[in-house]
Amino acid sequence: VIHHLSGQRALPSGYPLASPDGKNFLSISEDLFGGNRPNNIEIWRITKGRFSKDANFEPTWGPRAGQWLTPGRISIAKHCYAPTEKNNAELRPCGQAQVEYSQAQWKMIE
Q1: Which helix (H) or strand (E) holds 24?
Q2: What is the mean pLDDT of residues 18-24?
Q3: Measured between alpha carbons, how far is 110 from 15 in angstroms, rounded to an integer?
Q4: Which helix (H) or strand (E) holds 93?
Q5: Residue 31 contacts residue 38 (beta carbons within 8 Å)
Q6: Degrees (nearest 5) of the Cα angle 86, 33, 40?
């Protein structure tokens, strides 16, 4: 990600998804088995042409998709390890997690 005014670069682990107010972006990377990428959820802040990583969560489940519900609340689709006879590395949906901004910090609620 490159800021259009300052030229500063940020290297999120996944594709950026801007918050509704444009002050943050979410990045999700799912890699439970390969070890080639992080398995994480990042929240980045954009202030005066600068990027800063405000939060980094590394869950034991795979974060699949994220959606901003409000500028301070995100819903994350969870995928969990569910081996079968045909595929011992299968992942299946296993609920939703919420990430919210409260008391000046981001918190995950599972």
Answers
A1: strand 24-29
A2: 96
A3: 22
A4: strand 91-102
A5: yes
A6: 135
Give the number of other Cβ atoms within 10 Å of residue 51's Cβ: 21
Q: What is the DSSP string of 31-59?
A: -SSS-SS--EEEEEEEETTEEEEEEEE--
Q: Are 79 and 49 in contact (CB under 8 A)?
A: no
Q: What percent of the chain clears pLDDT 90, i.e. is strictly above it?
A: 70
* pLDDT tens column, 40-81: 999 999 998 899 999 999 999 999 999 999 999 999 999 998
Torsion of CA 43, 49, 50, 53, to 10 degrees: 0
Of 91 and 105, the structure prediction assigns the larger pLDDT to 105
